Amino acid sequence: MKRILLMVMRNIFLVPFAWFGLCYRASHVDKYTEEDMYKFLQWIDLHANKGGNVLIDVHGLENLPEKNGFMFFPNHQGLYDVLAVIEACPRPFSVVAKKEIGNIPFLKQVFACMKAYMLDREDVRQAMQVIINVTKEVKKGRNYLIFAEGTRSKNGNHVGTFKGGSFKSATKAQCPIVPVALIDSFKPFDTNTTRPVTVQVHFMKPMLYEEYKDMKTTEIAAIVQARIQNKINENITE
Fold first, then answer.
1. 77 near 190, Cβ under 8 Å?
2. Sign of the C-alpha dihedral, residues 209, 201, 74, 67?
3. Strand 94-98, strand 71-74: pairing
4. Is this structure's pTM higher than 0.90?
5. So what's the pLDDT on residue 203?
6. For the packed helices 2-10 and 34-51, what is the interaxial angle rounded to 10 degrees?
7. Where are the beta strands (DSSP E) in 25-143?
8. What are the backbone angles phi and psi of residue 145, rounded to the nearest 5°?
């Protein structure tokens, strides 16, 4: 909470314009292209991070697939995770997140601008429809981010268990799977401090369909989880 207040106070003259623009776009998503919407979100993100003493250290941009229609699978450390990837990634993407997150002010508007899907984990039918919809959109060239842990690990830089079901859209779309290692992404919003923090975002070499087509989703999940944890262990500073 302290860092959010710092972000607001240091951007006090931009906040009314940014908030109005965000809310307007969230209510009129079809008036803007995905690229225009994403640039606006990045603009807000950059100012918020600068004001909040958050530096994004990006690695592996060369690993992003040349063509759109891929899926990110990061580890899930905190409420800040998506904002870290937005600044780090030059390519627009959307998100599949649990519905509870969709009720948090600011994140609610950001996800609306991204045309994100809010997943109700208690509603199997709705969850299956989300998988179908994401599969169709990825095949058409949209990029998506899914947290395969299902919820924040709340264990710092130790990755939780990745769930096989999170990879169903990717396997059905036969798209590249891009593991993303987040380091210290829990610190901006999930710790009560305003000290400068560097969040590392590592885009790792994608798993292509030819590599995983004969695997079960649980096997894919275990491989992606292990690769992310290894990358974190190689780059952790504490």
1. yes
2. negative
3. unpaired
4. yes
5. 98
6. 100
7. 54-59, 71-74, 94-98, 117-119
8. -120, 130
